[in-house]
Specification:
InterPro entries: Glyco_trans_2-like (IPR001173), Nucleotide-diphossugar_trans (IPR029044). This is Glycosyltransferase family 2 protein. By secondary structure, the protein is α/β, with parallel strands linked by helices. The protein has 3 domains: 6-223, Spore Coat Polysaccharide Biosynthesis Protein SpsA, Chain A; 231-274 and 391-410, no CATH class; 290-381, Rossmann fold (3-Layer(aba) Sandwich), CATH 3.40.50.720. The chain has 12 helices and 17 strands. It has helices at residues 19-27, 47-57, 71-81, 100-110, 141-152, 174-180, 192-201, 231-249, 255-274, 306-318, 362-374, 389-399; strands at 6-12, 34-41, 61-66, 86-89, 95-96, 115-124, 127-131, 137-140, 170-173, 206-219, 278-279, 286-287, 298-302, 322-327, 335-336, 339-342, 354-357. α1 links the parallel β1 and β2 (34-41). The chain is globular.
Length: 415
């Protein structure tokens, strides 16, 4: 048989509502020399049936049925059977442009690239936003090590990546991905794409970055985990991610720079997953990351995305802040506790002490701040994060992470 140029791996779990659109968008590609690997990760709905039905209709489809093991285990199962020289990844609730594979492949072949990166579309509640990399171009091995990797995880602004973590807007060489993916621990459930992308980047001798958006990422309300139920288990998993990155990047980054990158990345993950209030070990003590905001402050939360939902859910348990309103420019029907999302025009400055913009992306924070200023909200009422590295590194130590970013508490005690 003629070798397949690209293997497209799609992990499948609990997405029967979205899966057909995903599969059909891949089968409709202008580029024809590919195989589609659908990995049923023990999905409890009709997804296994949908996968098998499509496989009967198109010989390019390979279906893998396996016991549920999580996203990473599904990606690994797909890679194990992949025959393509290149690997593309698509999440089963997303979809792709007709020229997704064609463009990725031409970019890779033309530039002899080990890694190909493109832009994407973000679909949220029916609205589509175009997101493009800020550093397009072709990079050789020296440039990757001198300018790309040093800013990949943290580009100097809290907390913005120099390269997106996602695996789905990229094309990988199978021979290199084999050296990376199987080393990633299956317990890494938050940031698993980062574990793959940044480890892979350390092996690359050539890279091409394009602004062309080809992938439609669907951000779903029902896919967001609301709050940390077990902080110690969360810290353990985040520790695995950070330790993995430290090991894989230690040969290509100065130790101090690498520690800075990981300090800020871990802090950002702790912020989002904890809903802003970071618990110190098993004590009732919380680290409040918002400058000037204190217990009992009257708060407006801006953003109904992941971070915003975490803040609402965490505050239900802690009652740390008095949340008086929850707003978003992407107004839609969503409720947590007694709070429901309201339009931005409903905010009156006299009703609150501080407004928390629930994003860790500085560009997004600045954009939202400028819009709020136009609405009459003064800058001194907009909360800002504590971002001094000395404070962050001490916090990470206080929580219980060691110098290698592993969480010190014995995980056996958590089971």
């Amino acid at each position: 048989m003629k070798p397949t140029k690209i293997s497209v791996i799609v992990p499948v779990y609990g997405i029967e509502k979205y899966l057909p659109k995903c599969i059909e968008s891949i089968l409709d590609q202008s580029f024809k020399d590919f195989e589609l690997i659908l990995v049923d990760d023990g999905s409890p709905d009709k997804c296994p049936i949908i996968c098998d039905q499509y496989a009967k209709l198109d010989s390019r489809i390979v279906v893998v049925h396996k016991k549920n093991g999580g996203l990473l285990s599904a990606r690994k199962a797909g890679l194990e059977v992949a025959k393509g020289a290149y690997i593309a990844n698509v999440d089963g609730d997303d979809w792709v442009d007709k020229y997704y594979l064609d463009t990725l492949y031409k970019l890779a072949i033309t530039n002899n690239a080990d890694l190909t990166v493109t832009g994407h579309f973000r679909e949220f509640n029916g609205k589509i936003e175009t997101i493009k990399p800020s550093n397009p171009g072709v990079y050789n091995e020296n440039q990757i090590k001198s300018s790309i990797i040093p800013e990949a995880i943290f580009n100097g602004e809290f907390c913005e990546h120099g390269m997106s973590t996602y695996v789905w807007n990229k094309l990988f060489k199978k021979e290199l991905l084999n050296q990376v993916l199987f080393d990633v621990h299956n317990d890494i459930l938050m940031g698993e794409d980062a574990a793959i992308t940044y480890s892979y980047l350390a092996l690359c001798k050539s890279l091409v970055i394009s602004k062309i958006p080809l992938y439609y990422y669907r951000q779903r309300h029902d896919s967001i985990v609301k709050s940390i139920e077990d902080p110690n288990m969360e810290y353990y998993r985040l520790g695995l991610l950070m330790n993995h990155l430290k090991v894989k990047l230690s040969d290509v980054l100065d130790e101090n720079l690498l520690n800075t990158q990981l300090n800020y990345y871990l802090y950002s993950q702790l912020l989002v997953r904890s809903g802003g209030l970071i618990q110190i070990n098993d004590t009732p003590e919380y680290f409040n990351p918002f400058t000037d905001v204190s217990i009992g402050s009257k708060i407006v939360v801006y953003s109904s995305g992941s971070f915003g939902q975490h803040i609402l859910s965490t505050n239900l348990k802690t009652n740390y802040f008095k949340i008086v309103k929850w707003v978003d420019v992407d107004f839609h029907d969503l409720k947590i506790g007694n709070a429901s999302v309201q339009p931005i025009s409903s905010v009156n400055e006299e009703d609150f002490d501080y407004l928390i913009i629930a994003t860790i992306n500085p560009s997004t924070h600045r954009l939202i701040t400028s819009e709020l200023l136009l609405m009459g909200i003064h800058d001194d009422h907009i909360a800002h994060f504590k971002t001094e590295e000395k404070i962050i590194s001490q916090l990470i130590k206080n929580i219980g992470f060691d110098k290698n970013f592993l969480f010190q508490q014995n995980i056996e005690q958590l089971n």
